[in-house]
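TA notes, week 10

Several of you asked for a full example with nothing omitted. So below is the full record: structure tokens for the whole chain, then the designed sequence directly under it. When grading your own attempts, check the secondary structure regions first.
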């Protein structure tokens, strides 16, 4: 008799748990691909900074390469936001941009700011 009086009481908790799980899955589906693209751009920029001592790698060439990579990844990076400079045996690459993330019930503007510093050999 005691079990009969408790029937159906866990339904609200179950629905709440399913709603939270669905929200987490949808958020992950929208955020994870953008995060991987940003990390891929960072790795590419680090590679360009490491190769800056090669003769054909001028500052303008590095900016063009990073901008083209961002375009191929469909990231909203402007060419004017990329800064490359060299100082006493070090190459610095800085860029920043904002990625809009449309999470359910919320729009978040993720500000990406990268500062890469690599020695020239």
């Amino acid at each position: 008799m005691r079990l009969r009086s408790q029937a159906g009481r866990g339904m609200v908790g179950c629905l709440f748990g399913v709603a939270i799980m669905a929200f987490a899955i949808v958020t992950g589906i929208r955020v994870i691909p953008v995060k991987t693209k940003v990390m891929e751009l960072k790795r590419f920029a680090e590679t360009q900074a490491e190769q800056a001592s090669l003769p054909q790698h001028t500052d303008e060439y590095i900016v063009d390469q990073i901008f083209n990579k961002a375009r191929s990844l469909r990231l909203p990076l402007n060419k004017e936001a990329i800064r490359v400079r060299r100082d006493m045996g070090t190459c610095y690459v800085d860029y920043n941009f904002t990625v809009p993330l449309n999470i359910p019930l919320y729009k978040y503007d993720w500000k990406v700011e990268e500062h890469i510093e690599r020695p020239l050999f």
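The first helix runs from residue 2 to 5. Use that as a sanity check on your answer.
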